[in-house]
Amino acid sequence: MADRPRILAFAGSLRKGSFNKKLCRLAAKEVEDVGADITVVDLADLNLPLYNADDEEANGLPPGAKKMKQLMVDHDALLIVSPEYNSSITGPLKNAIDWASRPEEGDVASLVAYRGKVAALLSASPGALGGLRGLVHLRSILGNIQVLVIPEQFALSKAHEQFDEQDQLKDAKHLESVKTVVQSLVKTTSALI
């Protein structure tokens, strides 16, 4: 039997009560239910400074960047739940992607954290499009750093109305959409590892 896919999940938000963090936790549970291993990381816990090439040259990667990069290396796939800020992705998400892309001595290849990875994209927003415009940018960024982004995605609109008191989705159709994305991610990753 093939190894169980190892999936790293994270939201592109730092806010404690983030709708995207709620959606990320919900999707992570679905990953477990379809037979893959899941690790959830909170970008807020990494304490990543803004990427600065001068700081990198002087000090190397900061501890949070090393941790994020190693988590990506150790996993087969990424489940990214991204808010939309001004029709694009968040600064913290772009910053994390940039730090993890930086080469270090001992890397076996360039873009070692991304090359050969599979990714699935979700978003949640109080707006009518559910963060969809940001996913277009995220898909482009990931594709350019050699990540295979599956075509299935889900954008949860009016997110402030969609979760119950237990942070579960009220609408079963939305949960089915999340499951579809997760199942495709696990199936695609399983076929490639």
Structural overview:
The protein is an alpha/beta fold and 193 residues long. The chain has a single domain, classed as Rossmann fold (3-Layer(aba) Sandwich), CATH 3.40.50. Helix content is 42%, strand content 16%. The chain contains 7 helices and 5 strands; from the N terminus they run βαβαααβαβαβα. It has helices at residues 19-33, 43-46, 53-59, 63-74, 91-100, 132-144, 172-192; strands spanning 6-11, 37-40, 77-81, 118-124, 148-156. The protein has a 5-stranded parallel β-sheet, sandwiched between helices. Strand 1, helix 1 (19-33) and strand 2 form a beta-alpha-beta unit. Helix 1 packs across helix 7 (172-192).
In short:
Helices cover 42% and strands 16% of the residues. It is of the alpha/beta class and 193 residues long.
